[in-house]
Each structure stands twice: as structure tokens, then as C-alpha cells.
Records
---
Amino acid sequence: MLDTWVVVAVSVCYLGVLFGIAYFGDRRADQGRSVISNGYVYALSLCVYATSWTYYGSVGRAASTGFGFLPIYLGATIMAAAWWLLLRKIIRICKQNRITSLADFISSRYGKSSLLGGLVTVVSVVGIVPYIALQLKAVSNTFTILRADGDPAVAVTTNPPVLADTALYVALLLAAFTIVFGTAHLDATERHEGMVAAVAFESIVKLVAFLAVGIYVTFVLFGGFDDIFARARADPDLVSLLTLSETQGYGSWLWLIVLSMLAILLLRGSGRSRSWKTSTNDTSGRRAGCFRCTCY
Amino acid sequence: MDDRLRSVRLLAVSGLALVLFNYPMIAVFDKPVLVAGVPLLWAYLFIAWALVIALVGWISRP
């Protein structure tokens, strides 16, 4: 459909714009005229919650379980209401003790045990690897789908050899970006204002893209919401998606809500409360940001 | 608004959301009927969701 060079060129341009915004945000922060210190930018930056895999995972859940995609966002909303109390407390503790990672946070809560801190680090790394693998897969799948002539399903399911796999090159590229832009700063308590500004800008792009697709599918491909649901009801394969009890139990619904409540707390990424920068948080937020850059 | 009062109210909204978005509340609306062309549970969840967001916005207004 699209030539490889077009996809690569658009990705590079988009990344360039994002880095421009990040640079601008950092400069404004240096001048003391922060661009991110308002509620709207903060709200938009929370979008790091949705990683690149979300675009496949969430849509997949909606296709296979109907309501199944919703608890991920409902849980986040429940937690957001409790932030005022919970998150502020965490940030205060982190600031007082100059804590920058989840491992430090937990070990400091339990008598500065270095063994516990090490354990948390190992668990974080073990946990984050498959998570990162999923993000890479999402990016390389997107690349393959955009490039694929004919049936995209065939193109995606084929398992390319390591050197021909886009995911490898995406991983190398992201590692390079992380080294240059992420770990170059030694001060771990520094605010990543530029990064937050770039994430917020991305969120606007995503919001516009999602709304455009939503409006197009609902009102152009179909004749409005009632048409979609009327046709889904008429289809024996889809009718079960319209009620929750038939596709998934209320139990798994509850667990997904609990899981997403914890996820939004831990994956907040590089929000204003950057004090909690861990292998699970800021890095993943930043990486997820980069991942998603390449997606568009 | 007093900081403590705001904290308590936000926590209460969080609890309200937890109740609204879970069993047994969702089971009440989980019926195979359409309301204004939309399944009942869809309509319920999105209205409840909007209500929770509006409440949080109202409580945390400056």
C-alpha cells in the first residue's frame, strides 16, 4: 500500500516534530516559563497510560469481548479520583527522601533494606521485558500492516528471521534515543518538561486521529450508532457482545478494574510528579512515547 | 475549598465510581435491550462515567 520509504520518512518527520516540541518545552522551563504547568497539559500527558500495544490490545478486546476493553479505562478513572490523596502522599515522601525509583521507594519504606530494593529491581526488570516486547511487536506490526500489499493478516502472522524483523531495528533505534536523550542527564530528580510537552502534543494527535476514525466508521461506513448496534444484534456471532454476562464474567471485569487501577498508578510515566522515575515508570513512559511516535 | 474536605469528597467519588462500575450495579443494566439504539449497559456505563468525571471536575475546581 505504502512504500517503505514513505512510512520511514513520515515517522522520522513526526519524531523530529516531537523532539522539537521537547526542546522547546525544556527551553521554556529553563527560562522559568513552563509550558506544562497547567491542568490541561497534565491531563493530556497522562495519555502515556495508553501504550502502543493498547491500539491492538484494546481493539482486540472490544472485538472479542465487546465490553471487555472498558474496565481498563474505568479503573484508571476510579484511581484518578483518589490521586489527590494518594499520589500527593507518594510525591511528598519521594521529595523528602530524594527517591527516584520504585525500588528505592519500597526499600525506604521498609527500613532501607538493600536486599528488598534489589528484589524490587529484579522483579521490575523481569516484569518490564515482556511488556516492552509487546510494544516492539505493536510497532513492527504497524509497520508491516502499513507496508503490506494485499492481505495484512498474512503479512503480520509470518514470522520473519531475526535480521529481517522490523522489531530489531526499532529496538536498536529506541535504545539509541534512550541513550542520547534519556540517560544523558545525570540528575535523576530533574523535571522532564520537554518530554511531558511532547507526550501532551502526541495525545492531541491521537485524540484527533481517534475521533476522525470513530466519526468515519460510525457515520460514513455505518449509519450512526443505532445502525451499528441494530446490525450487531441481527448477527448471531456478534449479539453476545452486547451484554457482559455472556462474554465475560463479572469477576474478571472486577479484576481488570483493579489491575488498571494499579497500572495507572505505576505507569503514570513522566507526568508532573516525575519524582517517581523507575524502570517501570518513567523509562516505560518515555519508551512508550517513543514507540508511539514511530507508530504514527 | 478546605483541603481536607476536598480529599474526603474525592475519595468518596472514587468509592462511588468503584460501586457504579462493578457488580452488582452493572448486572442490573446488563440486559439485551437497546436504549435509543444503544445497548442498555453501554448507555449506563458511559453516563455513569461522565457523571464521575463531572463530579471530580466539580470538586477539584479552583
---
Amino acid sequence: MKTRLALSLSIVLAVIAAAYHIAIATRLPETMPARWSPGGEVTAVAPVWLFTVLNFGVIIFAMVQMVLGHIGHRKGWRWIRWRESANAILLGVVALVSGMHIYLLNATLTGADPGALLVGAVMLVIALLGNYLAKSQPVSEHVPDDVNEHRRDWINRRSTRLAGRVMFGAGIAGMVVALAGYPDGAFPFAVIAILAPLVYRVVVTRSVQQVG
Amino acid sequence: MKDSIWKALSDPTRREIIKILGEGEMSAGDLTRRFEISGPSMSHHFNVLREAGVVSARRQGQQIYYALDTTVVQDLLAVLLDLFSVQEVPERSKT
């Protein structure tokens, strides 16, 4: 995704979240729910200003990363090769945080339990990260020097692609389960998304070492 | 979806190239030997895939090595298009 498009959409999302916040600012209490029990009861509260600073801090941080990626790409920094994937991931983060901001403010006013939607949104971001993970592997111009380096390169590519697929599948499955009204049911999928690629990497590395 | 990605994935030969590259990085020569297609035609397929950002390429001496660079959604799309045998309509048939 091009930087200009990602940045434009991010600005639109941030402005919508900010406009909603300003529109209901006079009706907001000083504190708002920050944590819920599985039963949907509020177990912790935080000042609204802290929530606002954190959310818009993340949004601004993501936008700065997009701009830095653009500058780096123009200057030819090698680590910036996967800039377009990074832009899509950063836009996903901005969309999540902006959506969370609006939804949590609304939940504060109406007293609704945002658990299922929040977990669903987090799982959607995991799926988005997984989708682009396979693409984000560095495309090295460096030619592997020896067999061991060639093996490491092969293992890196295989495990990164698998991690992307597992994260995508687990993210979508977790999102469906959470939105169906079982936010706790998404937890195993989040664990699978993180652990499965690590286990695969260890197994593949060992099997390659045994063959070698 | 970008037209270039649709164009890249709507050709059975290009989908086959993607499938083979799923096994790992491969040189243009090795890939060409797997198909009964002329070198220039294969070069055209490589260019379409590269322009769509579906494969990445690096040069080593005389050889160009290609590696898969797809997102998971693009992988799924390629599988679905393969399943339903979708292919591009040749230019001459378009009206």
C-alpha cells in the first residue's frame, strides 16, 4: 500500500475518532472503564485523558512510522524494502485504535460491555499481520555464502510464511468466535497464532540439522 | 484489488509458477525447464508476476533467482482461481 494512501486514510480515521470525542466530550465522566471481567463487569477504571493520550499517541506513532518508511525508501535504506506491507499493517493499527476509541467512548456513555467486539478487533489485526507477514520477509540481495547460511535462509522463509498463514487463519477463526459472543474462546487461537510457528521452526531446524 | 495482481493470478501458467515457488527460491532457468514454453514467454510471465509484487527477484551472476512474495490472501486467491480454472480472456477475444 502506497504511503500517501495509507497516510490519507489514517488521517481520515483519526479525524473521525477525534470529532466523535469532541462531540460527546461534555457528556463524558472523568473516568471510564479500562478492564472487564469475563462476565462483563467493570473491574478497573482510568481517567479519560489518559485513554485519549494513549490512543492518539499510538495513532501519531503509526503515522510517523509511515512517513519515516517513505523517507527511508527514497533514500534507499535496505531495511525499508517491505514498506508497502508495513503501511498496510500500520493502517490496520490506526483503524483498530480509532475504532476502539469510538467504541469505548460509546460504551462509557451507554454502559455496554465491549468485550466481544474488542477481542474480535484484536483478532482481526492478528489476521492482518499474518496476511502481510509472509511478504515482509527481507528480500536479500546477499547470496548465501555456504550451505549453513543457505539452510538458515530456507528455514527463515519457510517458517515466516507458515507463521503468516497460521496467524491469518487463527486470527480469522478467533474473530468469528469472539463476534459470535464467546470472546474467551478466541484466546486459544491467539496462543496458536503465536506458538505454532515457533514450534514449527524448532522442528524444521532440528530435522535439517539431522539431515546435514 | 489491484489490476496487476488479478492479471498475475488469472493465468494458469503464472499460478503454476507460484505453486512451484512455494517449494522455495528457484532460478529462472530451472523454472523455465519445468514448462514447455519458450524463454521469451516465460520472461513475460516473470515480468507480470514481478510487476504485481507477487514474486521477488535477485541476480546472481548470469542467473536471476525468483522467490515467492505473496500475502496469505493472494495465496488463497490463487488456490481459488485454480480450483475454478479461471483464466484471462485473450486480447483478441475481447470486444
